Protein backbone atom coordinates (compact mmCIF):
# COMPACT_ATOMS: atom_id res chain seq x y z
CA UNK A 1 0.00 0.00 0.00
CA UNK A 2 2.66 2.52 0.97
CA UNK A 3 4.58 1.89 -2.21
CA UNK A 4 1.55 2.28 -4.42
CA UNK A 5 0.69 5.60 -2.79
CA UNK A 6 4.09 7.19 -2.32
CA UNK A 7 6.25 6.14 -5.25
CA UNK A 8 4.43 7.95 -8.09
CA UNK A 9 4.47 11.19 -6.08
CA UNK A 10 8.22 10.84 -5.37
CA UNK A 11 8.91 10.42 -9.06
CA UNK A 12 7.01 13.56 -10.01
CA UNK A 13 8.14 15.64 -7.05
CA UNK A 14 11.28 17.09 -8.69
CA UNK A 15 9.15 18.90 -11.26
CA UNK A 16 6.66 20.35 -8.82
CA UNK A 17 6.53 23.83 -7.34
CA UNK A 18 8.50 24.80 -4.25
CA UNK A 19 5.62 24.78 -1.79
CA UNK A 20 4.11 21.59 -3.15
CA UNK A 21 7.46 19.92 -2.58
CA UNK A 22 7.82 21.40 0.91
CA UNK A 23 4.39 20.03 1.78
CA UNK A 24 5.31 16.46 0.92
CA UNK A 25 9.08 15.84 1.01
CA UNK A 26 10.32 13.35 3.59
CA UNK A 27 6.89 11.89 4.27
CA UNK A 28 5.67 8.39 3.63
CA UNK A 29 2.19 8.43 5.25
CA UNK A 30 1.36 4.83 4.31
CA UNK A 31 4.42 3.71 6.21
CA UNK A 32 2.68 5.21 9.27
CA UNK A 33 -0.81 3.69 8.86
CA UNK A 34 -1.86 6.69 6.74
CA UNK A 35 -1.08 9.37 9.30
CA UNK A 36 0.13 12.47 7.47
CA UNK A 37 3.04 13.13 9.83
CA UNK A 38 5.72 10.64 10.92
CA UNK A 39 5.59 9.31 14.49
CA UNK A 40 7.96 10.73 17.10
CA UNK A 41 10.01 7.63 17.79
CA UNK A 42 11.89 8.03 21.06
CA UNK A 43 14.55 5.40 21.27
CA UNK A 44 17.99 4.27 22.22
CA UNK A 45 17.72 0.48 22.03
CA UNK A 46 16.44 -1.19 18.89
CA UNK A 47 15.74 -4.92 19.04
CA UNK A 48 16.88 -7.45 16.45
CA UNK A 49 14.68 -10.45 15.71
CA UNK A 50 17.59 -12.93 15.97
CA UNK A 51 21.37 -13.25 16.42
CA UNK A 52 22.09 -13.45 12.70
CA UNK A 53 20.36 -10.12 11.99
CA UNK A 54 22.19 -8.56 14.93
CA UNK A 55 25.55 -9.85 13.70
CA UNK A 56 25.04 -8.48 10.21
CA UNK A 57 23.21 -5.30 11.33
CA UNK A 58 20.85 -6.12 8.52
CA UNK A 59 17.89 -3.92 9.37
CA UNK A 60 16.94 -0.28 8.83
CA UNK A 61 17.54 0.88 12.41
CA UNK A 62 20.14 -0.48 14.82
CA UNK A 63 20.59 2.05 17.62
CA UNK A 64 19.21 5.48 18.53
CA UNK A 65 22.39 7.43 17.70
CA UNK A 66 22.23 6.08 14.13
CA UNK A 67 18.77 7.48 13.43
CA UNK A 68 15.06 6.86 13.93
CA UNK A 69 12.10 6.93 11.53
CA UNK A 70 11.52 10.57 12.59
CA UNK A 71 15.07 11.73 11.91
CA UNK A 72 15.06 9.79 8.63
CA UNK A 73 11.93 11.66 7.53
CA UNK A 74 13.61 15.01 8.19
CA UNK A 75 16.91 13.90 6.60
CA UNK A 76 15.06 12.78 3.46
CA UNK A 77 13.27 16.13 3.29
CA UNK A 78 16.57 18.03 3.55
CA UNK A 79 18.14 15.86 0.84
CA UNK A 80 15.20 16.67 -1.42
CA UNK A 81 15.67 20.43 -0.81
CA UNK A 82 19.47 20.39 -1.21
CA UNK A 83 19.77 17.84 -4.00
CA UNK A 84 22.30 16.06 -1.79
CA UNK A 85 23.43 12.43 -1.53
CA UNK A 86 23.10 12.44 2.24
CA UNK A 87 22.41 14.70 5.22
CA UNK A 88 23.40 14.51 8.87
CA UNK A 89 21.26 16.24 11.50
CA UNK A 90 23.32 17.73 14.33
CA UNK A 91 22.44 19.47 17.61
CA UNK A 92 23.09 23.10 16.55
CA UNK A 93 24.06 25.27 13.63
CA UNK A 94 27.51 25.63 15.13
CA UNK A 95 27.88 21.83 15.22
CA UNK A 96 26.91 21.84 11.53
CA UNK A 97 30.02 23.98 10.94
CA UNK A 98 32.47 22.22 13.27
CA UNK A 99 31.65 18.60 12.41
CA UNK A 100 32.45 18.79 8.66
CA UNK A 101 35.62 20.78 9.46
CA UNK A 102 36.66 18.01 11.89
CA UNK A 103 35.70 15.37 9.34
CA UNK A 104 37.88 16.74 6.53
CA UNK A 105 40.81 18.54 8.22
CA UNK A 106 43.82 16.50 9.34
CA UNK A 107 46.97 17.51 11.21
CA UNK A 108 49.37 19.20 8.79
CA UNK A 109 46.58 20.49 6.54
CA UNK A 110 45.96 24.07 5.49
CA UNK A 111 42.41 25.44 5.42
CA UNK A 112 41.13 28.60 3.72
CA UNK A 113 38.27 30.39 5.49
CA UNK A 114 36.38 33.51 4.42
CA UNK A 115 37.00 36.50 6.70
CA UNK A 116 33.35 37.65 6.81
CA UNK A 117 32.11 34.52 8.52
CA UNK A 118 29.98 33.66 11.51
CA UNK A 119 32.03 34.57 14.61
CA UNK A 120 31.90 31.23 16.45
CA UNK A 121 33.21 29.48 13.31
CA UNK A 122 36.29 31.69 13.50
CA UNK A 123 36.77 30.90 17.19
CA UNK A 124 36.59 27.15 16.44
CA UNK A 125 39.18 27.55 13.69
CA UNK A 126 41.52 29.74 15.74
CA UNK A 127 41.37 27.58 18.84
CA UNK A 128 40.50 23.98 18.07
CA UNK A 129 41.69 23.60 14.47
CA UNK A 130 44.99 25.25 15.34
CA UNK A 131 45.42 23.00 18.39
CA UNK A 132 44.86 19.98 16.13
CA UNK A 133 47.73 21.14 13.91
CA UNK A 134 45.67 22.66 11.10
CA UNK A 135 46.84 25.97 9.65
CA UNK A 136 44.15 28.52 8.83
CA UNK A 137 44.31 31.45 6.38
CA UNK A 138 41.45 33.96 6.15
CA UNK A 139 40.64 35.46 2.76
CA UNK A 140 38.54 38.41 1.56
CA UNK A 141 34.97 37.52 0.53
CA UNK A 142 35.32 39.10 -2.93
CA UNK A 143 38.41 37.03 -3.81
CA UNK A 144 36.73 34.90 -6.52
CA UNK A 145 39.13 32.96 -8.75
CA UNK A 146 42.10 34.78 -7.19
CA UNK A 147 41.81 32.26 -4.37
CA UNK A 148 44.22 30.26 -6.53
CA UNK A 149 47.02 32.44 -5.15
CA UNK A 150 46.30 31.26 -1.60
CA UNK A 151 46.00 27.55 -2.38
CA UNK A 152 48.86 25.39 -1.13
CA UNK A 153 49.84 21.77 -1.72
CA UNK A 154 48.19 20.86 1.59
CA UNK A 155 45.03 23.00 1.33
CA UNK A 156 42.29 20.48 2.09
CA UNK A 157 39.24 22.71 2.67
CA UNK A 158 37.93 25.99 1.30
CA UNK A 159 35.25 27.25 3.67
CA UNK A 160 32.76 29.81 2.34
CA UNK A 161 29.78 31.70 3.71
CA UNK A 162 27.72 33.94 1.44
CA UNK A 163 26.46 36.49 2.17
CA UNK A 164 28.88 37.10 5.02
CA UNK A 165 27.54 37.23 8.56
CA UNK A 166 26.62 40.80 9.60
CA UNK A 167 28.16 42.64 6.62
CA UNK A 168 26.53 40.68 3.76
CA UNK A 169 29.37 40.51 1.23
CA UNK A 170 28.73 37.93 -1.50
CA UNK A 171 31.18 35.32 -2.75
CA UNK A 172 31.56 34.02 -6.29
CA UNK A 173 31.10 30.42 -5.15
CA UNK A 174 31.21 28.93 -8.68
CA UNK A 175 34.63 30.49 -9.35
CA UNK A 176 36.01 29.45 -5.96
CA UNK A 177 34.69 25.88 -6.27
CA UNK A 178 36.26 25.46 -9.69
CA UNK A 179 39.72 26.44 -8.43
CA UNK A 180 39.36 24.41 -5.23
CA UNK A 181 38.37 21.27 -7.12
CA UNK A 182 41.27 21.63 -9.56
CA UNK A 183 43.47 21.39 -6.43
CA UNK A 184 41.48 18.54 -4.81
CA UNK A 185 40.18 20.65 -1.91
CA UNK A 186 36.71 20.15 -0.46
CA UNK A 187 34.40 23.18 -0.66
CA UNK A 188 32.05 23.86 2.25
CA UNK A 189 29.44 26.60 2.43
CA UNK A 190 27.47 28.00 5.34
CA UNK A 191 24.23 28.79 3.48
CA UNK A 192 22.10 29.71 6.48
CA UNK A 193 21.02 33.12 5.15
CA UNK A 194 19.50 32.02 1.84
CA UNK A 195 18.32 28.52 2.80
CA UNK A 196 18.24 25.91 0.00
CA UNK A 197 15.05 27.59 -1.23
CA UNK A 198 16.92 30.69 -2.44
CA UNK A 199 20.35 29.17 -3.15
CA UNK A 200 21.34 25.53 -3.61
CA UNK A 201 25.07 25.27 -2.85
CA UNK A 202 25.57 21.86 -4.47
CA UNK A 203 24.32 23.25 -7.80
CA UNK A 204 27.20 25.78 -7.64
CA UNK A 205 30.00 23.26 -7.08
CA UNK A 206 29.92 23.16 -3.28
CA UNK A 207 30.59 19.70 -1.81
CA UNK A 208 29.14 20.24 1.65
CA UNK A 209 26.22 22.54 2.38
CA UNK A 210 25.81 23.75 5.96
CA UNK A 211 22.66 25.14 7.47
CA UNK A 212 21.79 26.47 10.92
CA UNK A 213 18.33 24.89 10.97
CA UNK A 214 17.77 26.84 14.19
CA UNK A 215 16.99 29.77 11.90
CA UNK A 216 14.38 29.51 9.09
CA UNK A 217 13.77 25.73 9.08
CA UNK A 218 12.84 25.73 12.80
CA UNK A 219 11.45 29.25 12.41
CA UNK A 220 9.99 29.69 15.89
CA UNK A 221 13.02 30.35 18.14
CA UNK A 222 12.39 27.14 20.04
CA UNK A 223 14.66 24.46 18.53
CA UNK A 224 18.42 24.26 17.99
CA UNK A 225 19.58 22.14 15.04
CA UNK A 226 22.02 21.99 12.14
CA UNK A 227 21.85 20.29 8.73
CA UNK A 228 24.97 19.17 6.88
CA UNK A 229 24.29 17.92 3.36
CA UNK A 230 26.95 16.28 1.21
CA UNK A 231 27.37 15.36 -2.44
CA UNK A 232 28.19 11.79 -3.44
CA UNK A 233 31.96 12.40 -3.33
CA UNK A 234 31.99 13.54 0.31
CA UNK A 235 29.01 11.77 1.87
CA UNK A 236 30.77 8.66 3.19
CA UNK A 237 33.38 10.61 5.14
CA UNK A 238 30.80 13.01 6.58
CA UNK A 239 28.53 10.15 7.62
CA UNK A 240 31.49 8.37 9.21
CA UNK A 241 32.29 11.50 11.29
CA UNK A 242 28.73 11.61 12.59
CA UNK A 243 28.92 7.93 13.57
CA UNK A 244 32.31 8.40 15.26
CA UNK A 245 31.27 11.55 17.13
CA UNK A 246 27.75 10.53 18.12
CA UNK A 247 26.40 14.03 17.54
CA UNK A 248 22.79 13.03 16.89
CA UNK A 249 19.52 14.91 17.45
CA UNK A 250 16.35 13.82 19.23
CA UNK A 251 13.25 12.69 17.38
CA UNK A 252 11.24 15.36 19.21
CA UNK A 253 13.43 18.09 17.73
CA UNK A 254 13.45 16.47 14.29
CA UNK A 255 9.66 16.37 14.38
CA UNK A 256 9.45 20.06 15.28
CA UNK A 257 11.75 21.06 12.42
CA UNK A 258 9.97 18.87 9.86
CA UNK A 259 6.67 20.45 10.96
CA UNK A 260 8.07 23.95 10.41
CA UNK A 261 9.62 23.06 7.03
CA UNK A 262 6.11 22.76 5.60
CA UNK A 263 5.59 26.51 5.98
CA UNK A 264 9.18 27.64 5.34
CA UNK A 265 8.47 28.81 1.78
CA UNK A 266 5.59 31.09 2.67
CA UNK A 267 7.37 32.34 5.79
CA UNK A 268 10.48 33.16 3.76
CA UNK A 269 8.41 34.99 1.14
CA UNK A 270 6.98 37.17 3.90
CA UNK A 271 10.40 37.76 5.52
CA UNK A 272 11.79 38.67 2.09
CA UNK A 273 9.03 41.12 1.21
CA UNK A 274 9.00 42.87 4.60
CA UNK A 275 12.80 43.06 4.83
CA UNK A 276 13.13 44.57 1.34
CA UNK A 277 10.36 47.08 2.07
CA UNK A 278 12.04 48.12 5.33
CA UNK A 279 15.53 48.14 3.77
CA UNK A 280 14.40 50.49 0.97
CA UNK A 281 12.69 52.74 3.51
CA UNK A 282 15.78 52.79 5.76
CA UNK A 283 17.87 53.99 2.79
CA UNK A 284 15.81 57.20 2.85
CA UNK A 285 16.24 57.84 6.59
CA UNK A 286 18.65 60.68 7.50
CA UNK A 287 20.16 58.85 10.51
CA UNK A 288 21.16 55.87 8.30
CA UNK A 289 24.42 56.06 6.33
CA UNK A 290 24.11 52.72 4.53
CA UNK A 291 21.93 49.62 4.30
CA UNK A 292 23.82 46.35 3.77
CA UNK A 293 21.40 44.05 1.93
CA UNK A 294 22.38 42.10 -1.22
CA UNK A 295 18.86 42.46 -2.64
CA UNK A 296 19.20 46.26 -2.85
CA UNK A 297 20.38 47.86 -6.09
CA UNK A 298 22.86 49.86 -3.96
CA UNK A 299 24.68 46.70 -2.83
CA UNK A 300 28.08 46.60 -4.58
CA UNK A 301 27.56 42.96 -5.58
CA UNK A 302 23.89 43.19 -6.52
CA UNK A 303 24.68 41.79 -10.00
CA UNK A 304 26.17 38.66 -8.41
CA UNK A 305 23.10 38.41 -6.19
CA UNK A 306 20.83 38.49 -9.24
CA UNK A 307 22.99 35.92 -11.03
CA UNK A 308 22.98 33.38 -8.20
CA UNK A 309 20.07 33.83 -5.78
CA UNK A 310 16.36 33.11 -6.18
CA UNK A 311 15.47 35.47 -3.35
CA UNK A 312 16.61 37.19 -0.18
CA UNK A 313 15.75 36.53 3.44
CA UNK A 314 14.90 38.74 6.39
CA UNK A 315 18.35 39.52 7.79
CA UNK A 316 20.43 42.61 6.90
CA UNK A 317 22.40 45.39 8.57
CA UNK A 318 22.32 49.16 8.71
CA UNK A 319 25.18 51.57 9.31
CA UNK A 320 24.28 54.56 11.45
CA UNK A 321 25.35 57.99 10.22
CA UNK A 322 28.27 58.51 12.61
CA UNK A 323 28.19 58.15 16.36
CA UNK A 324 29.56 55.28 18.41
CA UNK A 325 28.60 52.94 21.20
CA UNK A 326 26.28 55.50 22.87
CA UNK A 327 24.26 56.03 19.67
CA UNK A 328 24.10 52.28 18.97
CA UNK A 329 22.80 51.63 22.49
CA UNK A 330 20.33 54.54 22.27
CA UNK A 331 18.95 52.95 19.08
CA UNK A 332 18.66 49.47 20.60
CA UNK A 333 17.18 50.68 23.89
CA UNK A 334 14.45 52.67 22.11
CA UNK A 335 13.18 49.60 20.21
CA UNK A 336 9.97 48.08 21.54
CA UNK A 337 8.93 45.46 18.98
CA UNK A 338 12.42 44.43 17.86
CA UNK A 339 13.89 42.34 20.68
CA UNK A 340 17.57 42.48 21.64
CA UNK A 341 18.76 38.95 21.18
CA UNK A 342 20.94 36.54 19.25
CA UNK A 343 19.94 34.16 16.51
CA UNK A 344 17.31 34.93 13.86
CA UNK A 345 14.96 33.24 11.41
CA UNK A 346 12.08 33.11 13.89
CA UNK A 347 8.73 34.88 13.61
CA UNK A 348 9.81 37.83 15.79
CA UNK A 349 12.02 40.78 14.88
CA UNK A 350 15.42 41.17 16.52
CA UNK A 351 18.31 43.64 16.58
CA UNK A 352 21.96 43.38 17.64
CA UNK A 353 24.94 45.74 17.63
CA UNK A 354 27.62 44.14 15.46
CA UNK A 355 31.35 44.18 16.22
CA UNK A 356 33.92 43.54 13.50
CA UNK A 357 36.82 43.40 15.98
CA UNK A 358 37.69 39.77 15.13
CA UNK A 359 38.08 40.41 11.39
CA UNK A 360 41.64 40.25 10.12
CA UNK A 361 41.29 40.90 6.35
CA UNK A 362 38.17 43.03 5.84
CA UNK A 363 37.42 45.31 8.77
CA UNK A 364 35.42 47.57 6.47
CA UNK A 365 35.29 51.33 6.51
CA UNK A 366 31.87 52.16 7.89
CA UNK A 367 30.58 55.65 8.76
CA UNK A 368 29.18 54.55 12.13
CA UNK A 369 28.02 51.62 14.22
CA UNK A 370 26.55 48.53 12.52
CA UNK A 371 23.19 47.22 13.64
CA UNK A 372 21.95 43.86 12.35
CA UNK A 373 18.19 43.52 11.93
CA UNK A 374 16.15 40.35 11.67
CA UNK A 375 12.79 41.29 10.18
CA UNK A 376 10.14 38.94 11.52
CA UNK A 377 6.56 38.26 10.48
CA UNK A 378 4.96 41.26 12.23
CA UNK A 379 3.20 44.02 10.27
CA UNK A 380 5.66 46.17 8.35
CA UNK A 381 4.13 49.49 9.37
CA UNK A 382 4.53 48.64 13.06
CA UNK A 383 8.16 47.65 12.48
CA UNK A 384 8.86 50.90 10.61
CA UNK A 385 7.30 52.93 13.44
CA UNK A 386 9.50 51.08 15.93
CA UNK A 387 12.66 51.70 13.86
CA UNK A 388 11.68 55.32 13.27
CA UNK A 389 11.48 55.99 17.04
CA UNK A 390 14.82 54.25 17.55
CA UNK A 391 16.50 56.30 14.80
CA UNK A 392 15.17 59.51 16.39
CA UNK A 393 16.62 58.38 19.73
CA UNK A 394 20.12 58.31 18.18
CA UNK A 395 19.92 62.10 17.56
CA UNK A 396 21.85 61.46 14.31
CA UNK A 397 20.82 62.81 10.91
C1 LIG B 1 23.26 31.15 13.80
C2 LIG B 1 24.28 30.73 12.83
C3 LIG B 1 25.00 29.55 13.01
C4 LIG B 1 24.89 28.73 14.26
O1 LIG B 1 23.61 28.26 14.56
P1 LIG B 1 23.22 27.84 16.06
O2 LIG B 1 22.11 26.89 15.88
O3 LIG B 1 22.82 29.11 16.75
O4 LIG B 1 24.42 27.21 16.67
C5 LIG B 1 25.89 29.19 12.03
N1 LIG B 1 26.08 29.94 10.93
C6 LIG B 1 25.40 31.08 10.73
C7 LIG B 1 25.64 31.87 9.49
C8 LIG B 1 24.48 31.52 11.67
O5 LIG B 1 23.81 32.66 11.47
From TrEMBL:
GO molecular function terms noted in the UniProt entry: cysteine-S-conjugate beta-lyase activity; pyridoxal phosphate binding
NAD in keyword set: no
Residues bearing PTM N6-(pyridoxal phosphate)lysine: 215
Catalytic activity field: L,L-cystathionine + H2O = L-homocysteine + pyruvate + NH4(+)
Keyword Lyase among UniProt keywords: yes
InterPro entries xref list: Cys/Met-Metab_PyrdxlP-dep_enz (IPR000277), Cys_b_lyase_bac (IPR006233), PyrdxlP-dep_Trfase (IPR015424), PyrdxlP-dep_Trfase_major (IPR015421), PyrdxlP-dep_Trfase_small (IPR015422)
Cofactors required: pyridoxal 5'-phosphate
UniProt keyword terms in alphabetical order: Lyase, Pyridoxal phosphate
Biological process terms in GO annotation: L-cysteine catabolic process to pyruvate; transsulfuration
Top-rank taxon: Bacteria
Similarity comment text for this entry: Belongs to the trans-sulfuration enzymes family.
Stored PANTHER family: CYSTATHIONINE BETA-LYASE-RELATED
The name this protein goes by in its record: Cystathionine beta-lyase
Species of provenance: Limoniibacter endophyticus
Amino acid sequence: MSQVKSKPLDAKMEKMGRDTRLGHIGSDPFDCHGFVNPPIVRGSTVLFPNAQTMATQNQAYTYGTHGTPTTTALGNAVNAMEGSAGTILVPSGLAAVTIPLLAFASAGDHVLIVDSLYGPTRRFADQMLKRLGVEVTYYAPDIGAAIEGLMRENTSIVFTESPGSNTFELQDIDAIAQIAHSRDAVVMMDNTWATPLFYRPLDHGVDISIHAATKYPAGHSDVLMGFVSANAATWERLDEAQTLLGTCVTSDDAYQVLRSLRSMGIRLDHHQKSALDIAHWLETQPAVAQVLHPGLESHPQHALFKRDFKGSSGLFSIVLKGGGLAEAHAFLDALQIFGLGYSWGGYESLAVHVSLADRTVTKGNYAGPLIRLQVGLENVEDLKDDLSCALTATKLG
